[in-house]
């Protein structure tokens, strides 16, 4: 049974989602101070939605984009994470699109001419 969006995840659920061993998430907690799940009795970790999003971003930086831990720390400190949802292109009406394309054509002609 899947949890609802926004539900807290245990360390095993998050590790399973990311395809990582649990000790990697515990290691990340030592290297990324922003990653602080709730800890209950017996040190059970519960990752809030913000923690889950941050863990996904760290995973993206380290395991997909090839950052080092130090590089990922800097990337997270430098600015907000890009949205995980693909952005939709701006909606232009036909007249605006035609004006934009003509402006591009004119700039290309000037550069070539």
UniProtKB/TrEMBL annotation:
Domain HTH merR-type: 8-78
UniProt-listed Pfam families: MerR_1
InterPro entries reported for this sequence: DNA-bd_dom_put_sf (IPR009061), MerR-type_HTH_dom (IPR000551)
Gene3D superfamilies recorded: 1.10.1660.10
Listed transmembrane segments: none
Top-level taxon of origin: Bacteria
Name the record gives this protein: MerR family transcriptional regulator
